Amino acid sequence: MIPCVATPIFAESQSEEELLGRKVSILYIDEATNEKVAQNTMLFSHLDKDGSWTINANELPTIANYTITSQGDLLSLYGGSVIEVTVKANETQKDVIMKVQFVDETGTVVGGGDYFLPEGVQNYSVLSQYVPAGYQMTTTVDFMVEEGGSIQVNVEKIQKDVILNVQFVDSVTGEVVAVEITLYQKESIITQF
To answer: Mean pLDDT, 10 residues at a time, over the chain (193 residues)?
Structure first.
């Protein structure tokens, strides 16, 4: 008796229909724990002539709370075989309560409160939704968010009012003959006499 290994043979004459419907199991393995976290069975309709199937790792369906870390082409030799894919657990974001005060250029607190913010190093842009109306932040660097922490954020008025007082004086008598007050706002000029 001669030992041999049985290998499926797919003749060139096989039709597409004969190659359709191959099932491949995909095992998702956590790279940190080396444990199976999920399994999918997929049906692939386009196999190579030899019955194998190749797909790139980034074409596989993802699973909740994990990112696929396997890269490149993955090969399933024949229908019914298994592909192992390594995955990494997504870091969960923890929100904490932090006291935020918005302070204008004169040192006056113009707004603030206790806000839920993502824990860790954050950019000031995470506070933009809380900036008081009519103000804008003047700080754009990063800061540390931690439970029970507090921070003062510098803000400035978006519209600065400018008042211009003009007195018209008679050059002979030195008497004030008229007063004009002009209030400049962002997009308008208001004049009073």
So the answer is: 36 45 78 89 66 73 82 68 84 87 94 91 88 87 89 86 76 81 56 47
How far is CA 4 from each of CA 40, 78, 79, 85, rounded to the nearest angstrom? 33, 19, 21, 31
Residue with tokens 């890269």: 71
Q: Which two tokens stand for residue 16?
A: 């597409």
- End-to-end, the C-alpha distance of the chain in Å comes to 118
pTM of the model: 0.42
Q: Which amino acid is at 1?
A: M
Long-range own/partner contacts, residues 90-94 (CB < 8 A, 24 or more apart) = 90/65, 90/66, 92/65, 93/118, 93/119, 94/118, 94/119
Indicate the domain borders of the chain.
22-89, 95-157
Nearest-angstrom CA–CA distance, 138 and 131? 11
CATH architecture of 95-157: Roll (3.10)
